[in-house]
Structure formats: structure tokens, C-alpha cells
Write the C-alpha cells for this entry.
Amino acid sequence: MKKGFSSLLALLFLSASADAASVTGRIRFTGRPSAATASVIVYAEPVDGRRVQPGKFTLAQRNKTFLPRVLAVPAGSTVIFPNHDPIFHNVFSLSRPNPFDLGLYRAGEAKERTFAAPATYRVFCNIHPQMSATILVVPTSYITEPDNAGNYRFDLPAGRYRVTAWSERSLQPATTEITVGESPQTVSELIVDESKFVEAQHKNKFGQDYPKSAFDGKKN
């Protein structure tokens, strides 16, 4: 897992209060090749529909790479897309319910977009096919990332929650419901199945294959 990514998520989003209880759990992965790695997000959604606290987050472009590769944000949050490369980029997503195209912009410029509804957005650059990222928009502000052993932890106020484990290599997230009181508790193990993951070549913003010239490492 990316340590920088973990620090972005785990403690930025959670506003622990004095009466919050420690909730811990573990994720077990099936069907993952030994050499494969994947970003995993765990979030706890209040079943009573408490208000989500959106924020502002950054998905940067540097060295023809999106940083971070996976970004999880509460619904209603705004994501800023700064271009730190000395070349043009064109950030876009064809994902529903709200596909977007930020257009062509140069080094030092930034575009932004607000993500109102929970969804998974696959993000690419229309110029550089090697660039890809995922923005996971979730219906809660309680978001974290497990450690390398699959262990995670939340500080949650009393109430009922739906805990979800999402992996970029899984077609279906794993979920369970819990009731949090005043005492620490452990969530039942969540099993994430990654056996059906297939790496697919994405299209450009017009839904077409990238030209062969786009795969030239010298191309700007």
C-alpha cells in the first residue's frame, strides 16, 4: 500500500469525537496473484443517513502519472487536477453517472470538478494512454485504507454503519453492517474476491483506440 495515500485518507477524513469507539477489522483477499498489488479502501457509511462532510482534494499530474492512483472522497467533494508536467494534459472520464472532460491545459494550470453522487470514476488522459487513476466517491466521511496485512481501524460515534471494503481489482465490494456503542469492537472478517479481475485497455475520450503514436515514449 502507498504510505502517502494512507496518510491522505485515514486521518484527514475522520473527525473523532470524545465519545467515539474504536472499531477494528481485517480484510482477506482471494484470487489475487502473489505478485499483484492493489489499492484498497474501507469506508463506514452511517445507516441513519447522517450528513456527509465534503472537502477539497487533489489528483495531480506529474511525470505522466496521476498522483495518487486511487483517491477516495466523500460525496459532494471537489477534486483539483493540477498539471505539474512541462507538457499538456487532457483529463477525462467516461464513467457514469457524470462523465467529464476537462479539456487541454498546460503546465502550471489546474482544473477542478465537484463529485455530487457516490460512484466510481475511471480517470485518464486523452494524450497519454499510460495515465490512469480512480476516484471513488463514497456516501460517508469515514474512510481509511488497511495496512499490508489487511487490518484497518475507525473511530466511530455510536450508531449503525455499513462497512464496505473496495479493491481496484474486485468487481464487487464486500460489505457488512455493525452497531457501534461505547466499547471497542471488532468487525467480522471481510472477504474480497479478486479472482475475476481482467486488465483491459481503455479507450480515449471519443471511445476510440489511442493512435499508435500515443504509445511513443518520446511523445508529449
